[in-house]
Design goal:
Helices cover 39% and strands 12% of the residues. By secondary structure, the chain is an alpha+beta fold. It has a domain of 147 residues: FAS1 domain (Roll). 16% of the residues are buried.
Length: 263
C-alpha cells in the first residue's frame, strides 16, 4: 500500500489560521502606552508694583514751570527762603501762601533798589510775601487786618491789609504800595501761590527808625577827683566867708590911716 503525502496547501492553511489568530490576540492584549503627563506648573502670586509716592513740594520747581519768575527765584535761593518753605510744608499742617511778583513787577521798582538792600532786608522782603497759613481765593475776605506775614509782628512797620469781595478781586496795601492779586500759579490745598502785579514793599524800608538813645555823658576826671577829695561842710563855708569879710575890714582901716597921715 502506498501512502501519499497530503498536499502542501492542506498543511499550511491551518498553520496560517493559527498564526493569524495568535497575532491578533497578542495585538489586542497590548494596549497603547499612555502619554506622559506634564508636571504641574506651580502658581506664584503676582505682587503689584509699588505706586511711587508723589515728590515733595519744591517751590523753585513750581515757579520755573510757571515761567516769568526769574528774579523771585533768585531771591528765594539767595536768602535760603526756598529751603525754608519746602521744610515748612513737610513739618507743619497749616500750609503756606506765597504772593509771587513776576519779573515785570520787579522791573517796575526804582533802579538799584534790590541792590541797595542788605541780606537781612532781602530776607525780610521775601518773608513779607509769605502768609503762615494756606488761604484759598474765596477765603481772603475772612482774614483780619492787618494780616500777619512771616516778616514780623510790627503792625506799624510791617502791616499788610487785604480787602476782598468774595474772591472776585483781592486788593492789598502796605502803606507804600497798592497791589492787586492776579491768577493762581499753584495750589494743592497745602501751598497756594498767587501772582501779584507789584512787589509788596513794607513801610519798614521807608520809615526812619528812631535813633538809639544817646549814652549818658561821663563826668570829667577833674570833677570826679574834686568831688572825691572835697570834705567841706556848710559850716566850713560860712566860717570862710566871715574870715574874708574881716580881711576886707582890715584892708579898709589901713587905707583910712594912710589917707589921714597924708593929710
Amino acid at each position: 500500500m502506498v501512502i501519499m503525502n497530503p498536499p502542501l496547501f492542506s498543511l499550511t492553511l491551518p498553520l496560517l489560521i493559527i498564526l493569524l489568530f495568535s497575532h491578533s490576540t497578542i495585538s489586542l492584549a497590548q494596549s497603547p502606552a499612555a502619554a506622559p503627563t506634564a508636571p504641574a506648573t506651580p502658581t506664584t502670586a503676582i505682587t503689584p508694583a509699588p505706586v511711587p509716592s508723589s515728590p515733595p513740594t519744591d517751590i523753585i520747581r513750581i515757579l520755573k514751570k510757571a515761567g516769568g519768575f526769574t528774579t523771585l527765584i533768585r531771591l528765594l535761593q539767595a536768602t535760603q527762603v526756598s529751603n525754608q518753605i519746602n521744610s515748612q510744608l513737610l513739618t507743619t499742617n497749616g500750609g503756606l501762601t506765597l504772593f509771587a511778583p513776576n519779573d515785570n513787577a520787579f522791573s517796575s521798582l526804582k533802579p538799584g533798589f534790590l541792590n541797595s538792600l542788605n541780606d537781612q532786608q532781602k530776607n525780610e522782603l521775601i518773608q513779607f510775601h509769605l502768609l503762615p497759613t494756606f488761604v484759598s481765593v474765596s477765603n481772603f475776605d475772612t482774614l483780619s487786618n492787618p494780616v500777619r506775614t512771616q516778616a514780623g509782628e510790627n503792625p506799624d512797620r510791617l502791616a499788610l491789609n487785604i480787602t476782598s469781595s468774595g474772591g472776585n478781586q483781592v486788593n492789598m496795601t502796605t502803606g507804600i504800595v497798592n497791589v492787586t492779586l492776579g491768577g493762581t500759579v499753584y495750589t494743592d490745598h497745602q501751598l497756594a501761590v498767587y501772582q501779584v502785579d507789584k512787589v509788596l514793599l513794607p513801610r519798614d524800608f521807608f520809615v526812619a527808625k528812631p535813633p538809639a538813645p544817646a549814652p549818658a555823658p561821663e563826668k570829667s576826671k577833674g570833677s570826679k577827683k574834686k568831688s572825691a577829695d572835697s570834705t567841706e561842710t556848710p559850716a566850713d563855708d560860712a566860717e570862710s566867708a566871715a574870715i574874708s569879710v574881716k580881711q576886707q575890714h582890715v584892708t579898709w582901716a589901713a587905707a583910712l590911716l594912710v589917707a589921714a597921715f597924708s593929710w
